[in-house]
Amino acid sequence: MKVKVTRDFNDVENNLCTRHSGELYDCSDERATELNKLGFVEFAEPKPKEETKK
Question: pLDDT tens, 8-23?
């Protein structure tokens, strides 16, 4: 999933790579959701849909 960084942070899952505000990059859906909850990124693509129970 593509995300846009909203505030600078050091990406601990990518060898402490510094992600700068405004940067776009790809990561897993789970990682994107985690970083979004922490306030570091916003989704650049539509948010993944949660599975519906039938």
Answer: 999 998 899 999 999 9
